[in-house]
Amino acid sequence: MRLVRVVEAVGIRLGARFPRIAELRRIESDPVYRALFLAGLDAAIAERDAVREAEVETATGLLRSLDRTDSGGRTA
């Protein structure tokens, strides 16, 4: 955020050319928008973690099933 302030102090307006900087400025200055943004970010992180956990569980089950079967097709 300091970079945005420094750039603005120098007189360069980046918001029109770089929409992400405008959004960062809004997150920094608008508490309601910041709360909504952070809530969405938390939800996205939780969803990503759930997907990764499901992938790990699937891989674990696959590895366990492979471990139970030896090269002759017999189960342990």
Task: Outline the fold blueprint.
Blueprint: H1 2-10, H2 19-29, H3 31-68
Helix pairs in contact: 2-3
Q: What is the domain total for the residues? A: 1
**Treating each run of at least 4 consecutive H or I residues as one helix, how many helices?**
3
Summing up helix and strand content along with how strands pair, one would put the structural category as mainly alpha
Number of strands: 0
Order of helices and strands: HHH
For the termini, the CA-CA separation is 59 Å
Which stretches are low in confidence, meaning pLDDT under 50 for 5 or more residues running?
Answer: none
**Proportion of residues in extended strands:** under 5%
Q: What is the radius of gyration?
A: 24 Å
Average pLDDT rating:
82
Taking the sheet with the most strands, its summary is: none
What's the shape?
elongated
Helix content: over 70%
Task: Please tell me about this protein's structure.
- The protein is mainly alpha-helical and 76 residues long.
- It has one domain (2-68).
- The chain is built from three helices and no strands.
- Helix 2 (19-29) packs across helix 3 (31-68).
- The radius of gyration is 24 Å and the shape is elongated.
- It starts with a helix and ends in an 8-residue tail after the last helix.
- The model has no long low-confidence stretch (mean pLDDT 82).
